[in-house]
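Sample intake — Glycosyltransferase 2-like domain-containing protein
Collected from: Spirochaeta isovalerica
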Amino acid sequence: MKKRICTIIINYKTALITRNCVESLVPQLNSDADHIIIVDNNSGDAEIELLKSGLMDFTSAGIVTILPLNANNGFSSGNNAGITACPAEFYLLANSDTLFLPGAITGLLEGASKHPDAGLLSPRLEWPDEIPQVSCFRFPSPLTEIIRSANTGPITSLFRRYDVPLAPEKHVTHPEWTSFACVLIRDKVIKKIGLLDDGFFMYHEDIDYCRRLRQAGFNIVNWPEARVIHLQGKSSEVDNNKREKKSLPDYFYHSRARYYRKYYGNIGFLTANILWIIGRGISMFRQVFMGNERPVPQREFFNIWKSKSLRKGM
């Protein structure tokens, strides 16, 4: 039977926070009409047992299913496995490090009802202290890279229209793309444009999907009345590595390269990297002569050139 909402949560060695996410979500769902699928990306037998014991009440009640995969093929692939396992009117993709505040699901459904042209809706993402997170964005372009690497006010002001983050708003907005930490997607979107591109192991898959969605004529809505806490960085090492200036994992750079090559071609990817180098030169000049140090992950100059074939998932 087709469900109203099927929630997909990817678990990779995060059983405790996955359980917390589920516990915050279940009271807001209709046990007859809705379902949750926990897709485990090959975390290992011990992790599966932790999930089973921690979620026993919910699996016994039939509202939660644990779907173990034999390989970790990434965020997109895991979500695709969950989507194909559960026919539904809406698919709620949620990171395991999210906590649903009361009224979040009702709010998202209200937004969907008031905006029938919206193929995808996102809530307001918050820190635990209720401060809003940046979760809505402009599409990245090669010029974005000089902003990112220069990381200085004059360059950001000069290329403001290419600056990706959008400040959180209290009213409904229609961003070019929104974070997939938590999104509600209509089934008709998936039927029209397909599943997530599993060539993106992790990161940039949300940008790609929003571009495809908009190209197909759907709208995107950020509905801030629905509020979700996002414990950013608990389900991925990338945010922590950025703060500590450690080298980011290869899959981040492979996804970045895939995005630029997919939408701007090989020349666009080359241009993006050249602009990154120019921006980094500006940043280093300010660091040496003005004492303004800017955090840059280790080996970024080399890592931005990492790329894989575009064929998979196209």
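Post-analysis note: The two ends are 31 Å apart (CA to CA).
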